[in-house]
Design goal:
By secondary structure, the protein is an alpha+beta fold. The chain has one domain: Ribosomal Protein L30, Chain: A. The chain is built from two helices and three strands.
């Protein structure tokens, strides 16, 4: 399955409690912290709800040698 890298690029301070909780649920604790998650509908829904706070990149998986 595809993976995505999610980076918190803007502070959630001053935003709705649900949006702050969503950032924590994704594993984002501090500014510029990144996590790698599976590209599932559940994760993408969370990312869409805080799209103004995060940057998303596709992760290229290396094949085992």
């Amino acid at each position: 399955m595809a993976k995505i890298k999610i980076t918190l690029t803007k502070s959630p301070i001053g935003y709705n409690k649900k949006q702050r909780a969503t950032a924590v649920a994704l594993g984002l604790k501090k500014m510029h912290s990144s996590v790698i998650q599976e590209d599932t509908p559940d994760i993408m829904g969370k990312v869409r709800s805080i799209a103004h706070l995060v940057t998303v990149e596709q992760v290229v998986e290396e094949a085992d040698k």
